[in-house]
Write a structure and sequence with these properties.
about 40% strand, five-stranded mixed β-barrel, 3 helices, OB fold (Dihydrolipoamide Acetyltransferase, E2P), about 140 residues
């Protein structure tokens, strides 16, 4: 009798998980959406350097956080550039000049970056969502 109930329960759980995830991005189902500034967020991923051409055809090298899992970002009220985004996988890191040397040892490593998010709005923004960094540390 107990085995039958456990089997039935497992079937119900599997069906619920399958149907509830069909129209929802993985990150939403697992952790919900994050918010733009002024909310403080922590994102996990791997930092790399990536080159882009800006609007003046000049090469810019920026720090990119490739997220361990995609996230969605809720729209901010009264903002033209902090718009809803889904399945965000890459976030450009905005660092103070002294942070580059402090965090250079973390390039290529899995980290947790903390700060506030904002949407792209200049020719120097190369991902739809950027993180104004307050801290970066190795991920646990």
């Amino acid at each position: 009798m107990i085995s039958y109930r456990i089997s039935l329960l497992l079937i119900v759980i599997a069906l619920t998980a399958f149907t509830s995830r069909s129209n929802v991005p993985d990150a939403v189902a697992l952790q919900g959406c994050v918010s733009y500034e002024p909310a403080k967020v922590s994102l996990e991923g791997t930092i790399s350097l990536r080159s882009f051409l800006n609007a003046s055809d000049q090469k810019e090298v920026v720090w990119i956080l490739r997220l361990a899992k995609p996230v969605c970002v809720d729209a901010a009220e009264d903002s033209d550039f902090n718009v809803k985004r889904s399945r965000v996988t890459d976030v450009q890191l905005v660092l103070e000049p002294d942070m580059f040397n402090s965090y250079r040892r973390l390039l290529g490593k899995r980290v947790r970056a903390t700060g506030t998010l904002f949407g792209e709005h200049t020719a120097h923004h190369f991902t739809p969502v950027l993180l104004d960094v307050t801290q970066v540390r190795l991920a646990p």
